[in-house]
Amino acid sequence: MSHKIAVLPGDGIGHEITEQAVRVLSALGLDLTLEQAPVGGAAYEIHGHPLPPSTLELARSSSAILFGAVGDWKYDTLARELRPEQAILGLRKALGLFANLRPAILYPQLANASSLKPEIVSGLNILIVRELTGDIYFGQPRGVRTLEDGPFKGERQGYDTMHYAESEVRRIAHVAFQAAAKRNKRLCSVDKANVLETSQFWRDIMIDVAREYPDVELSHMYVDNAAMQLVREPKAFDVIVTGNLFGDILSDEAAMLTGSIGMLPSASLNASNQGLYEPSHGSAPDIAGKNIANPLATILSAAMLLRYSLNESTQADRIEQAVQRVLEQGLRTADIYEEGTTRVTTSQMGDAVLNALK
Ligand code: NAD
């Protein structure tokens, strides 16, 4: 079956890294049509908007989106709605991308890159499933008000609202259970049910959905404990599912466990498994155009694209194994280089993955 994939390189290192991922996708022998469009600052320069209608239309009509990164300091003075980062928010909203999947994988060859002891993190392979469109980040009402009574009467107060509707929790639960079913069949739901009503409700729904997945073992953990366990014994986890706020913090913590931001892919999916796939890092303007950025996070994002949106798990495995092989060969871009390994450029890393695919 033929699939259209939107390729949105964006800004900074976006072009260099997506180019390598496109080479890898094109080498698999699949029936793919890859169509490119500008996004972020690059789109602002051409169309006066970070997410022009033509780019959004391409994204809507594609099975999946391969996204590079957006942003540059030179756009910091633009009105908020015109800044490059608004393109990601716009795509999430327009496509209903509510499930963010962020694997934190530490290849044994890179164990020294982590700030934790190698024996604690070497071989780490966990997946964080973060709800992306609800929670306190979007809850209404919110704002600043003047209090009319109570102990702080007359003072100004900042406030936000945390809430989750049942269907919002159910749909992220299904994504997480299905992901766990494809892995080691253990799912840990992280909440703050000892304090928050929203969290108790979240937990009740998780328990209810678990009945549909008898093969997956569900456990629960308070978010403060999860933050501790992630640095104490991260390999004890398989899949973690959590809300937008807790997931924002825990997924960054898990990313740092691996010590190499240039290695981490991510996926944001909607209800029909259409997804946006991007590296977890930004546009790295400090190294843009130098052919030294690490393209592996983007290449691994392409593998996730195949697995989750195109149902091509075997091809996804092929890419992941090829990445493993180039690391075994001792090839490293500057960000993961250490003595005794061979330093390569962005395009040389792409060449090496292509060779390893054969
Ligand atoms: P960043 O992730 O771009 O860079 C942080 C550091 O990591 C830099 O030193 C950079 O050189 C390095 N780095 C990042 N990716 C790398 C790679 N693939 N290979 C080698 N080194 C890499 O974060 P930042 O500097 O805080 O932000 C730069 C711009 O990116 C900002 O405009 C920010 O808004 C934007 N940003 C975009 C996204 C996104 O597109 N999803 C995410 C985060 C930040």
What's the layout of helices and strands?
Elements: E1 3-10, H1 14-26, E2 32-36, H2 41-47, H3 53-60, E3 64-69, H4 86-95, E4 99-105, H5 118-121, E5 125-131, E6 143-146, E7 156-159, H6 166-181, E8 186-191, H7 197-210, E9 217-222, H8 223-232, E10 239-242, H9 244-258, E11 265-269, E12 275-279, H10 296-308, H11 313-328, E13 331-332, E14 342-343, H12 346-357
The chain binds nicotinamide-adenine-dinucleotide (NAD).
What's a quick, concise take on this entry?
This protein is of the alpha/beta class. The chain is built from twelve helices and 14 strands. Helix 1 packs parallel to helix 12 and helix 11 (313-328) packs across helix 12 (346-357).
Q: Could you explain the architecture of this structure?
A:
The chain is α/β, with parallel strands linked by helices. The protein has 2 domains: 1-97 and 270-358, Isopropylmalate Dehydrogenase (3-Layer(aba) Sandwich), CATH 3.40.718; 99-260, Isopropylmalate Dehydrogenase (3-Layer(aba) Sandwich). 39% of the residues lie in helices and 20% in strands. A 10-stranded mixed β-sheet has the order 2-1-3-12-11-4-5-10-8-9, with helices on both faces. Nicotinamide-adenine-dinucleotide is lined by residues 13, 17, 69-72, 85, 88, 261-262, 278, 281-287, 293-294, 297, 335.
